[in-house]
Write a structure and sequence with these properties.
single chain, 2 helices, six-stranded mixed beta sheet, 159 residues, 31% strand, five-stranded mixed beta sheet, mainly beta, Metallo-beta-lactamase, Chain A
Length: 159
């Protein structure tokens, strides 16, 4: 395997040819590995879904009622066609995960949204050692600065 070729961008989204699955695909595919249940990551119409266990109840609400949804706990490894997959906390929302993909010693981590600031509503972001990190950077610009969650919760309590 040529290094740097484990995950590629296709018209359906991020694709792992060796494992024959997509990460957060935006068009219907046979196997979808989903980072979290927000609408821009968990699309309907895929044949099957793999999510982290904390995300499963949310995914079942978001997806078609007859969707085939499987789940794994954080840190538990499974294999698709010889490609190892595991989920690790992304710290974004309840059930958000980074997807660790390993094949023949090469490790990629794909994260949908993630947050480094501790948040009591979800598992904290976990750094995952890898050769390649794919990040969504919707809010990556320095202009985006978020209020400390303690302040937000205090404001909610006061309200």
């Amino acid at each position: 395997m040529k290094r740097g070729s484990l995950i590629s961008l296709t018209k359906c989204g991020l694709y792992c040819k060796q494992g024959d699955f997509y990460i957060d695909p935006w068009l219907p595919v046979p196997k979808a590995v989903v980072t979290h249940a927000h609408a821009d990551h968990a699309y309907r119409g895929n044949d099957s879904y793999l999510v982290v266990s904390e995300c499963e109840p949310l995914a079942r609400i978001r997806l078609d009622p007859e969707a085939v949804v499987s789940s794994l706990d954080y840190g538990v490894e499974t294999s698709l066609n010889g490609v190892k997959i595991s989920f690790h906390p992304a710290g974004h929302i309840l059930g958000s995960a980074q997807v660790r993909v390993e094949y023949k010693g090469e490790v990629w981590v794909a994260s949908g949204d993630y947050k480094l600031t501790p948040d009591p509503t979800c598992a904290p972001f976990e750094p995952v050692k890898c050769n390649y990190f794919i990040t969504e950077a919707t809010f990556g610009l320095p202009v985006y600065r978020w209020t400390d969650p303690k302040v937000v919760f205090a404001e909610i309590d006061e309200w």
